[in-house]
Design a protein that fits this description.
The complex is a heterodimer of chains A (290) and B (198). Chain A contains seven helices and twelve strands. In chain A, the strands form three sheets. Chain A has a seven-stranded mixed beta sheet with strand order 1-9-8-5-4-2-3. A three-stranded antiparallel beta sheet of chain A has the order 7-6-10, covered by helices on one side. Chain A has a two-stranded antiparallel sheet with strand order 11-12. The longest helix of chain A is centred in the C-terminal third of the chain and has 22 residues. Chain A is globular, with a radius of gyration of 20 Å. Helix content of chain B is 27%, strand content 24%. Chain B has five helices and ten strands. A seven-stranded mixed beta sheet of chain B has the order 1-9-8-5-4-2-3, with helices on both faces. Chain B has a three-stranded antiparallel beta sheet with strand order 7-6-10, with no helix packed on it. In chain B, strand 6 and strand 7 form a beta hairpin. The chains are: A alpha/beta (290), B alpha/beta (198). The interface between A and B is large, with 41 and 39 residues. Bound molecules: zinc ion.
Chain lengths: 290, 198
């Protein structure tokens, strides 16, 4: 028996079905379009939704970057990158600026995205109303009726309890003034990058078989109350201990010996690029000093 | 017909995706699958769009002349089934179709439901010429401020399209192609106004 391997793993029928769903998702921003999720060679929950989108859109000319929680080197990201490279032969990169497709879990890169790029986000739970309504039939109805009181109630209860909205990640957003959408578990810091983004953003959920999208130049507002406005994670007065960057999303680390707290860029390729840049500047400075 | 069903359809899909994401952007698919033989019955770009999007899972409807012939070869190439206008997933309007017939298309096609707005028709329309000359001004998602376009014979359908899209999220999405294999898309979110004369 001879097995014929497909470009990008999927047969053409599978790709076509997902492609049709993607076009509808772009035409109805923030609305979750159902599709028939395929069996994948990696376990669900490991980014199959994002991977299915990537495999359906990718072509020979593309350059792929895969990140997991800000890191290109994580096992998960490397495995996805290898799988796509093996089945398509496309080039891969860690440089955000070089990539045409960026698949990611939990982050949108710090380097601003461009019109030439497509951001693919992996989504574990695509339904922002799932916590108030376990029934898919009913959540679809709530979206249809533009009834988002459940999402507002959730935020209100958090404010009553904690004095602020307690969502660390996946803070719901309103897209094009119509659909409330789960931005996937990105920090609130990244929600603002979705608003009027230059790049197309596609979001894929493998288990729930949904694809949704934020087209470029589309209004994306994080849900908030007038007297409790939306606030992103603050890194005021903090800087990355490696590259000195400020105004980026940072991980808080603790020195085991001294107990001292310090910060580090969560986006590792950004940090590396900044370091290289500084080194270069330093070299030039040294050169000039001679 | 010489078309690479894997790589050519991928390239055409990405062009459609780019255009659907950025209404008003005109992209050419002339270099892709340029051996497509539409036998003069429709534009090559119409045939290529059909081959990119259609398969046995979806249905289509042809508006214009030579309907049985186009139906026959589109079915043969894509395995998609022919459906009534009111049921079709993809509706092709070939060049030269008159205003009344086009009006009827926009009235009759599927516009989805509030629960399933994606269950709507996509209209693939042929036009004599697409350009970015300032005839119409587009606004909406995918457009930074405004985009100017000229679509030959658009006066036949812009008002009817607006009517079809007035109950967002219900509506129809359009892929417009010209004989030079230029392509432009109008998702239901795009609003169209005549350019203001300055
Ligand atoms: Zn850093």
């Amino acid at each position: 028996m001879q097995l014929k391997t497909h470009f990008a793993l999927f047969d053409e029928g599978s790709k076509k079905e997902i492609r049709r769903a993607i076009l509808k998702a772009v035409a109805i921003p923030g609305y979750q379009v159902p599709f028939a999720s395929r069996e994948m060679p990696i376990a669900r929950g490991w980014g199959t939704g994002g991977l299915q989108l990537t495999l359906s859109i990718i072509g020979k000319q593309d350059v792929l970057k895969v990140i997991d929680q800000g890191a290109d080197e994580s096992v998960n990201a490397v495995n996805i990158q290898k799988l796509v490279n093996k089945t398509t032969g496309v080039a891969t990169t860690i440089e955000t600026g070089e990539a045409t497709i960026i698949q990611s879990r939990h982050r949108i890169p710090e380097v601003p995205l461009t019109e030439k790029q497509i951001m693919v986000l992996q989504v574990p739970i695509p339904e922002p109303l799932r916590w108030v309504e376990p029934s898919e039939y009913k959540t679809k109805k709530l979206h249809a009726e533009n009834d988002y009181s459940g999402a507002w109630l959730m935020l209100f209860e958090q404010i009553m309890k904690y004095g602020k909205t307690a969502t660390n990640a996946d803070h719901p957003v309103l897209v094009h003034d119509r659909y409330v959408m789960a931005p996937s578990p990105i920090p609130r810091f990244d929600n603002t990058k979705m608003h009027q983004s230059e790049a197309l953003i596609l979001l894929g959920a493998g288990r729930e078989k949904k694809v949704y999208a934020v087209p470029p130049y589309t209004n994306v507002t994080s849900l908030a109350f007038d007297d409790h406005p939306f606030e992103v994670e603050s890194f005021d007065g903090k800087h990355c201990h490696l590259c000195q960057a400020t105004n980026v999303f940072m991980d808080e680390l603790v020195n085991q010996d001294t107990g001292e707290t310090y910060y580090q860029c969560n986006d590792t390729s950004y940090c590396l690029a900044e370091l290289n840049e500084h080194e270069h500047v330093l070299e030039v400075a040294v050169e000039h000093a001679r | 017909m010489i078309i690479d069903v894997v790589h050519d359809t991928q390239a055409i899909f990405r062009t459609i995706l780019h255009c659907m994401s950025r209404p008003g952007t005109i992209e050419s698919i002339a270099d892709i699958g340029n051996q497509a033989e539409s036998q003069g019955l429709c534009y090559d770009s119409t045939l290529l769009s059909a081959m990119t999007l259609l398969d046995a899972e979806v249905s289509f409807h042809i508006i214009g002349e030579n309907v049985p012939l186009i139906e026959a070869f589109l079915s043969a190439y894509t395995l998609a089934t022919v459906a009534e206008l009111q049921e079709a997933d993809y509706v092709f309007i070939t060049n030269g179709t008159n205003k009344e017939v086009i009006h009827n298309v926009f009235s009759q096609v599927k516009k989805g439901t509030l629960t399933n707005p994606q269950q709507s028709a996509t209209i693939i329309m042929e036009t004599e010429k697409l350009s970015n000359d300032p005839q119409l001004t587009l606004r909406g998602p995918g457009i930074a401020t405004t985009a100017n376009v000229q679509i030959a014979a658009s006066e036949f359908w812009t008002a009817k399209r607006e009517e079809a899209n007035q109950e967002y999220p219900l509506g129809v999405d359009m892929i417009i192609v010209d004989p030079q294999s230029n392509m432009m898309c109008l998702p239901r979110t795009t609003t169209i106004h005549d350019c203001e004369v300055s």
